[in-house]
Amino acid sequence: MGEVLKSRHTLVIEKKGKIIVKARKGSMLAIIAGEIVVAVLAYTASGRRITADGALERLCFLASIVLIAFAALMSLILALQSATSKTVFDVDARTMRRGGKRFDLSRAGGLEVQSRPFADKQLHFLCVNVDGRQLRIASETDPADLRKAASLLEGRLGSRPAAEGAAVAAEASASDAAQGSPRAGSAFIGAFLIAFGALWGGGGYFFLRDVIFTMLPEYGGPLLWPFGLWLIALGACELARIPLFRRMLEGRSRGKAVALIVFFGSYLLICWRV
Question: For 202-236, b where at least 16 C-beta lie within 10 A, e where not — what string?
Answer without folding.
Answer: ebbeebbeebbeeeeeeeebbbbbbbbbbbbbbbe
